Amino acid sequence: MDIRCGIDVIRIDRVRRAVERLGQPFLDRVWTAGEQSYCRTARQPLSNASCASLAARFAAKEAIAKALGSGIGRDGIRWTDLAICPDPSGQPQAQLSGLARTRFLSLGGTKICLSLTHDGNLAIAQCVLLCENAS
Prior knowledge:
The protein has helices at about 10-30, 35-40, 50-70, 100-105; strands spanning about 1-10, 80-85, 90-95, 110-120, 120-130.
C-alpha cells in the first residue's frame, strides 16, 4: 500500500477578489456547476460563507493534484476534473473525471480522504490517497 498526501492553503479574500473581478467565466473554469450550486446561496451569491466554501474546494483541488503528483494543468488535468461534493452525511468527497481519474487509476488509487477547514481569512485542505501500487 502506498500513501500519498497533499495539502494546500489559500486566502479566502483572494478567491473573493478573483470572483468579483473575473465573474462567471472564472467560476466555470475552476468549479463545476454542482460545486457552485452547493457553495452559493440564493440571497447572497458572494457571501462570506460562499467564498469560504469555494476557497476550501480550491484548496482541496490543489491538495489532490499534489497527492496525484501532477498539479493542475500538467498532464492535462483541469480544475473541473476534480469536483468536491458532500456525501449524505456532509463529509467532502472527491469526484475525479478526465485525466485526473486516469492519473488516480494509474497510481492504483483505491481511496481519497479529504479534510477541509476555513477560519478567519484562510481555507485549508488536506488529501490522503491510498494506492495499491505506485508508478
